[in-house]
Amino acid sequence: HVQLVESGGDLVQPGRSLRVSCAASGFTFSIYSLSWIRQAPGKGPEWVSTITSDGRQTYYADSVQGRFTISRDNAKNTVALQMNSLKSEDTAQYYCTTYSMWGQGTQVTVS
What we know:
Low-confidence stretches: none
Structural class: mainly beta
Distance between the termini: 36 Å
């Protein structure tokens, strides 16, 4: 059973940090690049970050560059997004995805 399960979303104040995680199961995690996508209320999906299958390359949207860090642990089948200096505009549902598989999302609210 293929699953991506996000966790760690919370309500935080602007300027604070938060780490969201995604646990994968049911497929060969280590061969997939993983991405975080977010969707704010009333807006379309926004790509946030991608990490290659081996973790050696990472990519970030301009809006989060320098504040967010994506990482993965292929031994534990997890990917994480460390979010620092959070802003109100970071408020969104955050999804981890391979683009063929999606999690259910975790809510991050910055207020």
